[in-house]
Amino acid sequence: MPRKLCTGNYVAGYTLASAGEANRLARGCVAGGYPITPQTEIMEYLRGYHFTKGIVQAVESEHSAMAMCIGASMAGARAFTASSSNGLAYMTENVFMAGYCRLPIVMVAVNRALGPPWNIWVDQGDTLALRDAAWLHFYCESHQEVADTILLAFRVSEHSDILLPSIVAYDGFIISHTSTGVDLPDQEKIDRFLPPYQAHPRLNHERPHMVGAMVTPEDTAAHRLELAETMERVPRVFEQAREEFQTVCGRVPDGAVTGYRLEDAETVLVASNSIASTVRGVVDERRERGEKVGLLKIKLFRPFPRAQIRKALERARRVGVIDRNISPGSGGIFWLELCGALMARPDILLQGYLTGLGGGDVTPPIIEGILEDLKQRTAPGEPAFKVQAYAKMY
User: Fold this and answer.
1) How far apart are CA 27 and CA 265, in angstroms?
2) What is the three-class DSSP state of 322?
3) pLDDT in tens, 164-221
4) Whole-structure pTM over 0.85, yes or no?
5) What would the mean pLDDT of 130-143 be, rounded to a whole number?
6) HSE (CB half, 13 Å, CA atoms) of 125?
7) In 32, 125, 155, 223, which residue has its Cα 20 to 30 A from 168's Cα atom?
């Protein structure tokens, strides 16, 4: 398909539909869906798609949407859905079930602030609330990355060494409703990249069996250990999928982490999603002034790529982590993860910054302010709020 001007939600809808169609020679595809801003257009696209072997069912709630995906995936179908914000919160019980049952469902999550107070703009708190649910987490910077990452998520999730579900997240409105040029692979390429999903059907009326039965504490501990060991295999399988993607589509998607101008960077800002694009521009301006600054973009959040982060930040002396989320009482969630990843690096001044919460603009002046604050620090402190305007509500 030639380069197409389209919104992020169109990209997600097209890619999910094409991935489902690619399973037409196996057990087809199933999607359960329920509308919520700013995700609704994805399910509208899927409802209008004519699958050779598949169904997209509108249900009465997000909880039921995930339940439908669970049943379909247990029967061997390629299953997927999309949601946002409180919709994700409502399906939480079944999100955990999908992960613990090792079902390779792919869910697109258009990041939106959880309410109340009600807010339809971007905030990563909705997906990060699910960070312990045994799902892979991918965070996308651009429309192109949305398309590529959805395909990678199916490939990794369905790999026989993984068999875990994936969340592919991107910014509400900033990506979901804006348009840009995207190279969308045609169905032939997607068929080559995503071979029919051949997992043995888990549900078979001729051989009934129980799923999710009561077990002993020892069995549960063994199960959780198995999940942890599976997560350790994800980086290897993800790199294999990227190589195959290049073979099929002729380009290499970004990896779990992507460094920008890190070769001699002493000061590095860590960011994800669309904020990374803004940081990249500020880094270029600072480089023109002779400052040794760089960017580390994190795409893979679960499993958290600690080893790759440590390697990328080998030369860094000051690291600022920009979070568009907050864990009340702790700080930014990416910052908390970086604290663990870099605990053996006391030579790094690691500082957390909170900005863009609830969809606030994250502009170059805000990034400039973060760099200035980081430059003047002699020791790290509590996570700092960096916003254009802030008014206390209580």
Assistant:
1) 50
2) strand
3) 999 999 999 999 999 999 999 999 999 999 999 988 777 888 888 788 889 999 999 9
4) yes
5) 98
6) 24
7) 223
Rounded Cα distance between 145 and 150, Å, is 8
**Distance, CA of 208 to CA of 203 (rounded, Å):** 7
- Please tell me the distance from the alpha carbon of residue 84 to that of residue 107, in angstroms, as a whole number: 10
pLDDT band for position 388 (50/70/90)? low
pLDDT band at 94 (very low <50, low <70, confident <90, very high): very high
Residues 33, 57 contacting (CB under 8 angstroms): yes
Would you list the DSSP string of 335-381? HHHHHHHTTT-TTSEEEEEE--GGG----HHHHHHHHHHHHH-SS--
Q: CATH class for domain 260-385?
A: alpha beta
Domain boundaries, the chain: 4-249, 260-385
CA gap 247, 72 in Å, rounded? 31
Cα angle: 67, vertex 10, 27; to 5 degrees? 45
Average pLDDT over residues 83-106: 98
Taking the CB of residue 228, how many other CB atoms lie within 10 A of it?
11
Binning pLDDT at 50, 70 and 90, where does residue 335 land?
very high
Strand 300-302 to 136-139 pairing: antiparallel
b/e string for 129-145 if b means 16 or more Cβ within 10 A? bbeebbbbbbbbbbbbb
The model's pLDDT over 2-58, given as tens digits with 9 standing for 90+, comes to 689 999 999 999 999 999 999 999 999 999 999 999 999 999 999 999 999 999 999
- Maximal C-alpha separation, the chain: 71
Domain 4-249: CATH superfamily is: Thiamin diphosphate (ThDP)-binding fold, Pyr/PP domains (3.40.50.970)
